[in-house]
C-alpha cells in the first residue's frame, strides 16, 4: 500500500472489514460505549465515544497515509487543531516564534491566549530562512509556520527553518491546509507537527467543520493525544464521516481546482487592472523556486493586488460578480473572492504596507473556468486600469 500513489492510498486505506463488506464505514451516532464484561470496562479503548469510533479510526488512517504521520489527532475545527498543536508543546515560561503571515485566528490565539498562559510570543518575517536563529532564545520551545502564508502567499524555506530549529531541539509546527496535505509533505521535510483545517479541501463541500494534527514521531503524537484528551477535544462522528468521504476524492478535486486556478491567474496577470499576481506556481512569484522544490502542485487559492482604485470602485466590482461569493472560507466547490485589507495585521515595514492598491484573495471552485473569467471581466468594468 505504501508504494501506491496518494490518490490510490486515499481510496484503499480502510479499517477492519465489515461482514458483509461495504465501501464506506457506518455512521455511528453514539456517546456511550457498552460493555458486557466488568473486567473490560476499564481496560478496553475506546471506553467513551468521544475518543472516536470506527469512522474516526478510518479517517485517522487515511490522513496518516496522506501525510505520512505516526499519529493523528482529530479536532472540531481547523482553529482548534492549530491551537492544540502549539499549546501541547509549551508551558509557562516558554517562548514561541510564529510566522507573521499566520492565519489570523491562530495568531490571535498565540498572542492573546498563550501570553495569558505565560508563554512569550514573537513574530518573524516569512522569508527569514536560517536567519531565524538570531531570534532564538534559551527558552524558545517551538516555531509555527504556514506555507504559503495566509492572505499574502509567501512560501517559507521549510527545510532551512527545520534545520535551524532542530539544531536547538526546538519543535516545528506548520499549517498545511493550502496543499490539502496532497501537494506538500512537511513531515517528510522534518516538521514535527502538520496541521490541517479539514473544513477546507478534505471535507471539500462547504458543509462541515473539522481539524487534524499529524505528528512525525510517535512520542509527539502521544503528547498531542494526551493533551486533546485532557482538554476534551474531539470531532463529531458526522463531521468525521464527511471528511473521510471528501478525502476519497481529494486528488481529483484538487487537480481540478489547481488547473482552473492557474487559468484564471494567467488571465488576471495580463489584465491592466491588476498590479501584481500572487500565485506561487507562477514564475513571477518571488518564492517560485522554493515552491517548485518543496511542492508538487497548487490549490485553488491565491491572491492579486489591484491598481489604485477610486473610492467605491472595489465594492462596485464585488457587487457586480455573479458566480463569485464573498465569504471567509475556501476549499469547497464554490468560487469565492474577498478584499483582504481590513484583516491584514502585519509587522511594520512589510511589503503589504507599500502595495499600490487593494489586496484580493480568490478561491477558484469547480465551475467552468471560462464562465468564471467572463464573470470577472464583466465586473471589472467598475475598476480603474491604473
Describe the structure.
The structure is a single chain. The longest helix has 20 residues, at 250-269. The chain has helices spanning 6-12, 38-41, 54-67, 78-87, 104-116, 158-166, 218-231, 237-248, 250-269, 288-294, 313-320, 369-379; strands spanning 71-75, 95-99, 120-124, 140-146, 171-175, 193-197, 211-215, 274-278, 301-306, 336-339, 359-363. Helix 5 (104-116) links the parallel strand 2 (95-99) and strand 3. It has a seven-stranded mixed β-sheet, with helices on both faces. A four-stranded antiparallel β-sheet has the order 8-9-11-10, covered by helices on one side. It folds into two domains: 67-246, Type I PLP-dependent aspartate aminotransferase-like (Major domain) (Aspartate Aminotransferase, domain 2); 250-382, Aspartate Aminotransferase, domain 1. It is globular. The chain is an alpha/beta fold and 386 residues long.
Shape: globular
Our count of helices gives: 12
- Main sheet record: 7 strands, mixed
Number of strands: 11
Read across the widest sheet, the strand sequence of neighbours is 1-7-6-5-4-2-3
Chain-averaged pLDDT: 93
Number of domains: 2
Rg computed from alpha carbons, rounded to a whole number of angstroms: 22 Å
Low-confidence spans: none
Q: Supply the CATH class of the largest domain.
A: Alpha Beta
